[in-house]
Amino acid sequence: MSHDPQSVPTPNPAPGSGATGQYAPHVEARWERPVVAADGGEATLLVRVVAPASDETGGDRAAPLDIAFVLDRSGSMTGGKLELGKEGVDLAAARLRDADRVALVVYDNAVDTVHPLAPATPRGKAALRLALHGIDPGGSTFLSGGWVAGCQQLAEAPADSGNGKSATRIRRAILLTDGLANVGIVDPGELSRHAGELRQRGIATTTVGVGADFDEGLLSAMAEAGGGNFQYVADPSELRAFFATELQELFSVGATGFTVSLALPAGATAELISAFPAETSGNRVEVAIGDLPAGDTIELVFTVKTEPGDRNQELPFAVSACWTDPRADARRKTAVALEPVRRVSAEELAGAARDELVAEQAALQRAAAERRAGLELDRAGRVAESRARMAHARSLLSAAPMTDAVAYDLKVSALLADDVNPAGYDPHVRKSAQFGESQRRRGRAERRVEDTHGS
Question: The whole model's pTM is what?
C-alpha cells in the first residue's frame, strides 16, 4: 500500500445495494447457536464477506496495477511450455493501461530481471515483447530467487509512478513453474512465511503449476499465505486462458488490504478453521483476506471456546472489517452486528435451534481442512493416514445439512477416501484436488467431481 489513508466509518450495506456509491462489501456474522454450556464449551461463528458483482462496483476500476511476471525458464520448460508461458504474458500485458506497470523476471539456476517494472505504455509493452523473445530454456530451478526478485520489483517501486499523485496500487507477483524448487530456499514453510510477510506489505502472490511434476503443496501454500490464487494447468495450452482470467480478476478488485477482526470477551478463545492467515493478539483475532475481487464470497468459520461461568450470563463478541477503497484511495471500516452468546444449561443447549447456513459452512470448512491435511500426508507417502483424514472429512459432511455444496464435497471426499492405490494418488488427482480446495476457499468451487478425481 502506497500510504495509510485515513479510516472512514462505512455503513455495512446489504448485498448489491451499492451504498454511498463506493465499493462496499457486505459483511455479516452469525452463530450456529448463540448459546454455550455454562460449565464451559464451544460455539461456532460464521463471518461472511460478499463482494458486489462487477456491475455494482461503481464503474471502471480506478486502482492502477503493478504486476511482476516470474517465469521458470529451466530445462524442463522445453516442449512448448515456455513459449506458451511467454505468449500468455504478452497477451496479458497487452490488456494493461498506461497507468499500470509491469515487470518480467526469469529464472533457472540464475535469475535475470529482463524487464524492470515500468509503465505499460505502448513503448513499454513493445520493450517487454522484445525481452520475451530473448528467453530460452536453461538449467535448474531457483524458484525462491526468481520469486523474490519479482517481489522486489514491486516493493522498491515508487507509489506515484512519477505523476506526482499518491494512489493505492494493486500489486501482485505471478509465478509460473513446471518443476520443483531445487536451488535456494526449498522449504515450503519458509517460502510461505515470506509470502505472508509480503502480503502484509500489500504484495500478493499468485502461483501457477504446469504439468505433472511441480509441487502443488508448495505452490498452493505460497498462494494461500500470499493472498493470491493457485492455478493448476494440466496442459500448457490452458496458459492463455489463465492469464486472461487472472488479469480480469485484478481489474475487478474493489478492496485491498481487507481484514476481519473478532474481539473476544475475557476467558474466551477462538480458532479460525478457514484457510486464511490469522493472528491473535490479546483478546483479538485478525484475519487477512487481502485483495477482494468483484463477486467473491468469503466464508470464515471460527470455533469459539469459553470458560465456565454463571448461567444466563451474556458474553459480548464484536466483529469488524477494514479495507482500502482504491477508487477513493481511502481506508474504510465497518462494525458488524452480532448478538452475544448466552451461558445455558446442558438441556437448553441441546434444545437450541441451529442456523443451517452456519452448520453447512462449518462442515464444509472442517472437511476442507481434513482434505488439505490428507493431501499433505499423501504427498509425504503416508497413504494410510491420508485416507483416514479423507474418511473423517466424509463423516463430517455426512452429518451436515445436505445442501448441494455439501453433497458435492461429500462425493469428492468419498472418492479421495476410497482410493486404494498403495503408492498414493495419481499426480493429476492430487493436483486437481489441491486446486479445487483453493477455489472453494474463495467461493469459486466448480462442481466437477470427475475432474477432481481424474476419472
Answer: 0.85
